Amino acid sequence: MNMVDVEPLDAGAFWRVTFGASKGNVIDRETMAELARVFADARETRDLKGIVLTGRGPHFSFGASVQEHLPEHVQQMLTDFRAVILGLLDCQRFIVAAVEGQCLGGGLELAAACHRMVATAEARFGQPEIALGVFAPIASILLPERIGRRRAEDLCLTGRSIGAEEALQIGLVDGVVENSAAAAALEWMRVHLAAHSASSLRLAIGAIRAELSARLRMDLPGLEALYLRELMSTHDAREGLQAFLEKRPPIWRNS
Question: Model-level pTM?
Answer without folding.
Answer: 0.97
